[in-house]
Design a protein that fits this description.
Blueprint lengths: L44 H18 L12 H11 L4 H14 L3 H6 L2 H8 L6 H17 L7 H5 L6 H12 L8 H10 L9 H14 L5 H15 L17 H4 L17 E11 L5 E5 L10 E2 L2 E2 L2 H12 L5 E3 L3 E4 L4 E11 L1 H6 L6 E4 L10 H14 L1
Parallel strand pairs: 1-7
Antiparallel strand pairs: 1-4, 2-3, 2-8, 5-7, 6-7
Helix pairs in contact: 1-11, 2-3, 2-8, 8-11, 9-11
Bound molecules: iron/sulfur cluster (SF4).
Iron/sulfur cluster binds next to helix 9 and helix 12.
Length: 397
């Protein structure tokens, strides 16, 4: 039996390329003109043909054709493999796939099995929701489709755990009909080849990539083309070390033409962290130069570390300084300190209050308060406080 899927007549033809209002001249696909690609132009028939031809000819020579799920390819076999391959390497999947298919050779057998048994076959693969969804879907397929997987993307997408790309893979690789796919490997190839800006988790970027995939997937041999695109992504256009000299579409790759293939795809933008601020009292004993430190509560930021007394406003800090000295103490500003935590940015406003010797003596060292002398090590310090103290002490010495 041929390892590749048969090329049946196309039931669903490629969606017509959507015309997008271009603000700038359409970018030329090729090395000569590389322009802004915020708006992806519809590809010409010649461009689509050239791309597909190069990819298919690469598939004939180098594409993977001996994977277990490619033998006697069927919608069921492709479905199981595609679900297992989500977030998981091919080499890891193979033994799991073989054991799974031995135990559950058909949708009907899978549907009848207990969930415990199905999940037992998933042990070690992780992402157990995938196994539960497979089992649930098998029962729906038996109840609603007589035990045969539906053969259209729309119907497949309605089953638990099947997204558009998995549905496209089942239709193109398992049924032999036309359907585009967009898994992680294909996304990477397309992002680089067309220098698609933005993170591909964003809806607008996904849309652009689907448009490209729809346009590029040829009417004939869609299954081979999709397999080849996945293979190119997995073995040639790899995440950190693309082997562009072995790539079938290197002649028209924009990222390569720019000399920076790994600049695409763009990373997920980090979420804007909230900004907070606080005021720290640097109470200095006028005569000895010692600084009052306070131990942080055990929970929360800098838990259990020594820090400067901290307040939510300059007013609160002033009140505390006056109370400490017994008189109204003038406050001297120090430059703000920026510190970033995993979840927020903190701006610290340190203010110096010089305290009389008498007041200093009234405040005894306790487990929560110490008068810090340069070189002392009462315990761990909050990082920005350590820096501030260092600077301050240098100037006082
Ligand atoms: S030429 Fe290089 S960067 Fe471009 S698609 Fe091929 S492997 Fe990826």
């Amino acid at each position: 039996m041929s390892p590749t899927v048969k090329n049946q007549p196309t039931r669903r033809s490629p969606a017509p390329a959507k015309e997008v209002p271009a603000k700038e001249a359409p970018a030329q696909i090729g090395n000569a003109q590389i322009e802004d690609n915020r708006v992806l132009p519809a590809l010409s028939a010649a461009q689509r043909k050239r791309f597909a031809k190069a990819v298919l000819s690469w598939f004939d020579d180098f594409g993977r054709k001996n994977l277990p799920w490619q033998q006697d390819a069927s919608p069921y076999r492709v479905w199981i493999s595609e679900i297992m391959l989500q977030q998981t390497q091919v080499t890891t999947v193979i033994p799991y796939y073989q054991r799974f298919m031995q135990s559950f050779p058909t949708v009907a057998v899978l549907a009848k099995a207990s969930q415990d048994d199905v999940l037992d076959h998933w042990t070690g693969l992780g992402y157990y929701a995938r196994g539960r969804n497979l089992h649930n879907s098998a029962q729906v397929i038996v109840e609603q489709y007589g035990g045969e997987l539906p053969t259209t993307v729309d119907e497949l997408e309605r089953l638990p755990g099947i997204g558009r790309s998995t549905a496209g893979a089942i239709v193109s690789l398992g049924v032999g009909n036309w359907a585009p796919i967009l898994d992680g490997n294909v996304k990477r190839v397309l992002c680089r080849h067309y220098t698609v800006d933005g993170w591909y988790g964003q809806t607008a970027v996904q849309k652009q990539l689907w448009q490209l995939s729809e346009q590029l997937t040829p009417a004939n041999r869609a299954g081979n083309f999709n397999q080849a695109m996945m293979d190119v992504g997995a073995t040639v256009c790899t995440r950190s070390n693309p082997n562009c000299s072995a790539c079938p579409v290197s002649k028209t790759c924009r990222a390569l033409a720019r000399g920076k293939p790994t600049d695409w795809p763009h990373r997920k933008p980090s979420k804007e962290k909230p900004k907070r601020q606080c005021w720290m009292l640097v109470a200095i004993d006028k005569s000895s130069g010692e600084v009052l430190l306070e131990k942080r509560p055990q929970t929360g930021i800098w838990g259990g570390l020594w820090s400067l007394p901290q307040y939510d406003s300059v007013g609160e800090l002033g009140d505390a300084a006056n109370l400490l000295d017994g008189n109204v103490v003038p406050l001297e500003k120090l430059g703000p300190i920026e510190h970033t935590f995993t979840h927020f940015h903190l701006t610290i406003h340190p203010l110096i209050a010089r305290i009389s010797r008498q007041s200093r003596d009234a405040i005894m060292d306790t487990e929560q308060l110490v008068w810090y002398k340069h070189g002392d090590t009462p315990g761990g310090f909050a990082a920005p406080v350590a820096k501030l103290l260092d600077k301050l002490m240098q100037s006082l010495v």
